[in-house]
Amino acid sequence: MVPHLITALTGPINELEARMLESMPAIERWFRLEWMEHTPPFYSSVDVRNAGFKLAPVDTNLFPGGWNNLTPEMLPLAVQAAMAAIEKICPEAKNLLLIPEKHTRNSFYLTNVLRLMQIFHQAGLNVRLGSLDPEVKEPTVLTLPDGETLTVEPLVRTKHRLGTKDFDPCTILLNNDLSAGIPKVLEDLHEQYLLPPLHAGWAVRRKTNHFQSYEEVAKKFAKLLGMDPWLINPMFGQCGEVNFAEEAGIECVQSNTDALLTKIRRKYKEYGINEKPFVVVKADNGTYGMGIMTVRDAKELDAVNRKTKNKMSVVKDGQEVTQVIIQEGVPTYERVNDAVAEPVVYMLDRYVVGGFYRVHAERGIDENLNAPGAAFVPLAFAESTQLPRPGAKPGASAPNRFYMYGVVGRLAMLAASYELEATDPDAEIYE
User: Fold this and answer.
1) Residue 406 lies in a domain
2) Buried b vs exposed e over 35-73: b needs ≥16 C-beta within 10 Å?
3) Dihedrals phi, psi of 202, to nearest 5 degrees
4) Strand pairing of 279-283 and 292-295?
5) 419 and 397, same structural domain?
6) At which of 170, 200, 230 does a domain end?
7) Are residues 190 and 251 in the same domain?
8) Average per-residue pLDDT in the chain?
9) Range of weakest confidence among 221-225, 354-358, 371-375
10) Are residues 239 and 149 in the same domain?
């Protein structure tokens, strides 16, 4: 089943799909060469938006927390990718310590942790859960809605190593995005592999760095395919000193919004797109769908109400918003059962292992779907994303459509790799 695009605007996307399929050998070779020079993030998920006239990533998560939304059919692929990833990092690994988010009462999130543990267990590792929560002082059993259980243990830190009681891991996997800052216990672990690295966490990571890297990747890729990079790249601007609560720095957001809307209008005119452009203003270090607003006219920012101000002032773990990214809004014209949907692509190491649709019946095509009330529909990725079907009519084949999403997901993952290299505090500099 291919989730249908509800407009007649399917021309450019179908052209893009056809072009990607005929260029498949060149694309895969290009990725192979890129991965020879760059290290992929350990795992990642990418929110992709399909507007019919453009297809672009709008967010890349380096601590994906929706593994429970993958279908059982996708698991073998995830296990193989996990084996490849571990082999590369620490081939002799026996033990893996997984560090989840602190809010461990959310049953959806816990099911995701369980799924991750299963993947790495099947990849041949002993997996334990260590908690950053200071209140966890002894092993604590958490029961999931389906009756399964998880045991969370307190962390034990020695001089250069981290583990739990009687458990010494070779690798530590973070499923905690460090929004609240970098805990001391994770610093200076020189003898173990800590994945993703600390500078991938939201304490230091910025979306603008990511999309700057993505712009570079999109230009390279577009050159390979002989196309306009705009078709896969959302344009953006940035404001560095903003405080919505005190209305400071709003002029910067306004002027950047205005400039970006002008650029988008120009592109829409070039491609004959009769849509009203919009931008999305989001926290530069934001996560969990917090600190996001849609703006169609810079004047709207004059009259931002208190509720929106409060919403834009803090994100997860009460972190204040001082920097924002102003991103070209990519509407999503995909529908699943008449509700607005966006594909989310999941990757482990350099492999696409599956994905699902984030669906929200109460949200519009130009709104953030990562909000309470969202549902996750894995149906569409039930077929493999790895084996497209050449010769099928563009827009008619699920594997072909998902191959295309997988390519865009991998471009965003490659951008994350560029970004992490550029922001690595311990990078070796070669003159």
Assistant:
1) yes
2) beebebbbbbbbbbbbbbbbbbbbbbbbbbbbbbbbeee
3) -70, -10
4) antiparallel
5) yes
6) 200
7) no
8) 88
9) 371-375
10) no
Q: Report residue 100 as tokens.
A: 């989840």
Give the structural domain span for 336: 4-64+207-423
Indicate the residue among 167, 200, 233 that finishes a domain: 200
Q: Across residues 47-58, what is the average pLDDT? A: 92
Burial code (b: 16+ CB inside 10 Å, e: under 16) for 106-125 equals eeebbbbbbbbbbbbeebeb
Q: Is 430 exposed, middle or buried (0-12, 13-18, 19+ CB in 10 A)?
A: exposed
The verdict on 193 and 305 lying in the same domain is: no
pLDDT at 390: 74
371 and 223 inside one domain: yes
Give the CATH number for residue 132: 3.40.50.11280
Specify the number of domains making up the chain: 2
Rounded distance, CA 156 to CA 130, Å?
9
Strand partners, 142: 150
Contact present, 16 and 401 (Cβ < 8 Å): no
In a domain, 11, yes or no: yes
Q: Are residues 371 and 282 in the same domain?
A: yes
Kindly state whether residue 384 falls inside one of the protein's structural domains. Answer: yes
Task: Please compute the mean of the pLDDT values over residues 302-320 and round it to a whole number.
Answer: 74
Report pTM.
0.93
